[in-house]
Request: fold
Amino acid sequence: MAGRSVRTSFAVAAIALSALLPAGAAAHVERSSYWPDPAPDCSVTPCAGGAVPKARSLSSALNRKAPGDTRVVCRPESLTLARQSIARARRQGYDVRPTDHRTLSARQARLLLRINRRLYQRCRYHEIQPAVTNSHNNDRVVVMPGLYTEPTARAQPTHDKRCDPYKTHSDSGDPGALSHSYQLHCPNDANLVAVIGRGEGPGKDPDPAPEDRHGIPNLGPCIRCNLQLEGSGVSADDVVLEAGDPKAGNGGPSAAGHEKDVGLFVDQADGFVLRKLTVRHAAEHDIYILESDGYRFDQFKTFYAGGYGVLTFVEDHGLIENCEAAGNGDSGIYPGAGAKTNAGRDVNVYPEPRYSQEIRDCDSHHNTGGYSGTNGNATHVVDNDFYDNALGFTTDVFTAPGHPGFPQQGDLVEGNRFYDNNFNPYVAGSDVKPYIPAPVGTGLWIAGGNDNVVRANRFYDNHRRGVMLFAAPDATVCGPIVGSDTPVPGCEPTKVSTSYNNSFTQNVMGVAPGGEVRPNGTDFWWDNFPGNTGNCWWGNTAAPGRQVTTSPMMLPDCAGGTDPSRSIGTGDAANEGELVGCLAGFTFGDYPNGNSTICSWTTTPAKPGAAAAADGSAIARQRRAQLQALCDELPQNRTCAPLGGPASATGRAAPQPPVSFEGAWAGATAAPGCRRGCSPAWRASPAAAPTGARATAPS
Reply:
């Protein structure tokens, strides 16, 4: 009965919490959204979508015979700034991201300066938005070094009454959602720069939206498909799109002096490419791409948005690479509701399993969350660094009102580094204003997700936990009867659909790349939700002479990952009790700060080994004491079986057999695209994955 009471309380608290999630904090209401048709649109030549687009070299912008026209945007000082940046890069190199420092050869410097001189001669625009507005399919917008505040777009009214006829209903029924037509006719109402890729459709948008979100209804013709927007400097630092206060530089606070909700908005723009641009201080999102098939974001930076540094929503065939995201109130990188092209896919739409988006070679740091992917399906996350956040990585379902793709499924997270995620944005005076609650000191959590693979990553120096996994029953998120006012497509309140078939293997716990021992508070934490199946932990390693630490003390290894049917959740009163306390704290406390007397998540955990370490706090000790008392009364209960013998703080499983990735449950049988972080030598050795200086042409 005690376990049932905990689970009932968990559901009730989660239902109350979901009603308070920060959807109401958004300045504009989002429309119902759809996954684009994955097939290329060949009404334009070359076809748009159907694959990740190729980036065109900067030098090709000078080729007048190439497809499309090039429009050049500059400031009076652009050429001087280009010279200074090139000279500086020759002397000391430049950072694509903090962990990727590159050099510039003399030949590359001469070529880049020559290109910028010719571009400056062709400059006809001094703001980015007019150049975008005048562009068509296959065109280019090249932005020369400088600070762009977009005074004309800033001056456009926000919530303009003249735009009201283009509003539609959101999934919750709110009549104030911004339709595609709204963005087409009023592009700078919410956005500093807007790239609207398609015209109006021939019919009328469905209202209310259908549950099936495959294919955008009433799709208009391509008008700016295959558009490339790029800076002409050495790096993203040279071209800045400023949505707020320029005096804040790349610093905070979040959304400092914001003038628009979104810095750069991209809507239904198949084949869009963004390169070498920095966006800062938007009220909600610095970069936001919606309902687009085929995009590539390369060598870009975002700083101090109120919500997300970069938000991709209902996307397919997407790639984010070589980026930096810092200071954002929610998360640095947010691939939400990605096309469900892997586990759980509709085979009539996606016959073969694949990943719909890839995120690689990025640094996301000093955010509330480094990465957030609500219903972020089929995303390949590889070779990134998540550090100095409150929570390094989350994929979840419980913040999902209106998000297609429930339940979340099919991510592959491999070869990344999650470390020092101990930043606390909830303390007074923080330069980051938290947008969401998060367990400070945690590397990664899966908060209600299925069929995810977390392998060959490094987790170290996360003072609370390395990895967390817990279920979110459908009733906590579905709506509108329970949960929130927004129905979630595919969600049924009577079911428990989340936290099945997740695998954690070959991760290195508590060891920095150079071999230094830097333990996590607890390496792996699981709520052990009753009835969840197929969750397996095997082949993970700790520092020499140390053991992987877990809660519960024993986690199922599924015979080295070969038999997921051996894993069945039986309940854990202590861990479920923690979830109840925290959900209640956020529900009835000061959202998103919570109530520190019943939940320690928003307090700074002590460094592992200290007297009051993360899982050694008074709250945690009380939960363990309660569990032990329960087990003394119910010694035959399966939940209490691990406590039948001598207690162990480390609880490492027996040595594991060789790793096997066979079986669809694991989400992938190989590691396509996994490069330096996932080589067999890297997995077997604590030596650093090869990073550092690279001599690369800034093409």
